[in-house]
Amino acid sequence: DAGVTQSPTHLIKTRGQHVTLRCSPISGHKSVSWYQQVLGQGPQFIFQYYEKEERGRGNFPDRFSARQFPNYSSELNVNALLLGDSALYLCASSLRTAIYGYTFGSGTRLTVV
Amino acid sequence: LAKTTQPISMDSYEGQEVNITCSHNNIATNDYITWYQQFPSQGPRFIIQGYKTKVTNEVASLFIPADRKSSTLSLPRVSLSDTAVYYCLVRSGTYKYIFGTGTRLKVLA
Q: Sorting pLDDT into bands at 50, 70 and 90, what band is B3?
């Protein structure tokens, strides 16, 4: 069975640009969460989606948005990129909420120059 | 909201038992505590999850005292391949899950 897949694996963008990151959860998992991990720090919670609805949001500006599709895949969008948005963006899927434990993808490494 | 604290780093020798503690206040009484392992440039990997007392699986044990203000991950007989960063994960708010500060474990030969 495929695990959590994220695309692209690496990405370089210029300040002010927009980026879309994609995630496909494990088959049967209905919840997708997004985390940002800056180098040397722990993952920071951005969003959780369950059954296509936003269920939780972390302390991130409105430049960050996401959505979940009927097949439970998800996109994370970041507008007006800043240098500080450079990070590993992790997608995690779970059956329902993280109470059942997350399975993480390998992440998308975003570099903003 | 819950806050978590872990030791920044630990060193151990191969074959020793390693215990990593996460302090977490304000977690809900019905919430699980989950631990993850992370290698560089990879996503965190689930290790173990528990609700109270003691849980054991094939790779680790998790001890949670009655007050649930902390949890301790125990790795028996570590090897070089256990060198990684270890995080606890708890719920903070209705649908918000936060990682601990992370503990960088270095296993020495």
A: confident
Calpha distance A47→A66 (Å, rounded): 7
Residues 74-93 of A with CB under 8 A from B: 88, 90, 92
Distance of alpha carbon B59 from alpha carbon B65, whole angstroms: 20
Q: Helix, strand, coil: what percent of chain B each, to 5? A: 5, 55, 45
Q: Each residue of A22-74: pLDDT tens digit?
A: 999 999 899 999 999 999 899 999 999 999 999 989 999 999 999 999 999 99
The answer to whether A25 faces chain B, any CB pair under 8 Å, is no
- Round to whole Å and give the CA distance between B85 and B72: 15
Nearest beta carbon to residue A106 from set B42, B98, B102 = B42
The candidate with the shortest Cα–Cα distance to A103, out of A87, A90, A88, A92, is A92
